[in-house]
């Protein structure tokens, strides 16, 4: 799925309806993931995971660390050690 980037967020809209978004702040080289949302009609399709992978790529591209704050981000990083080098 392709996501739109605006500073502090990646999101997807279909027919002007928000399908999914992840919001974050960047401060002193640390990306704090503070909110992840997937519209109920689109849950169970792995979209939240795709959003996390977009943030991971963003952090890698910019040489940032990641601080998972929202509950989904925390669970995502607890279930994989693949990105431990990015965690703050």
From TrEMBL:
Domain of life: Bacteria
Domain N-acetyltransferase: 1-88, 2-88
InterPro entries named among the record's database cross-references: Acyl_CoA_acyltransferase, Gcn5-rel_NAT, GNAT_dom, GNAT_YJDJ
Classification via PANTHER family: BSR4717 PROTEIN (PTHR31435:SF10), PROTEIN NATD1 (PTHR31435)
Official protein name in the record: N-acetyltransferase
Organism: Apilactobacillus xinyiensis
């Amino acid at each position: 799925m392709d996501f739109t980037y605006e500073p502090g967020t990646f999101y997807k809209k279909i027919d002007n309806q928000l399908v999914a978004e992840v919001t974050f702040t960047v401060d002193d080289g640390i990306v704090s993931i503070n909110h992840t949302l997937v519209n109920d009609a689109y849950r169970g399709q792995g979209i939240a995971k795709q959003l996390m992978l977009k943030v991971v790529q963003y952090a890698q591209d910019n040489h940032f660390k990641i601080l998972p704050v929202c509950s989904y981000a925390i669970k995502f990083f607890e279930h994989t050690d693949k990105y431990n080098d990015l965690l703050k």
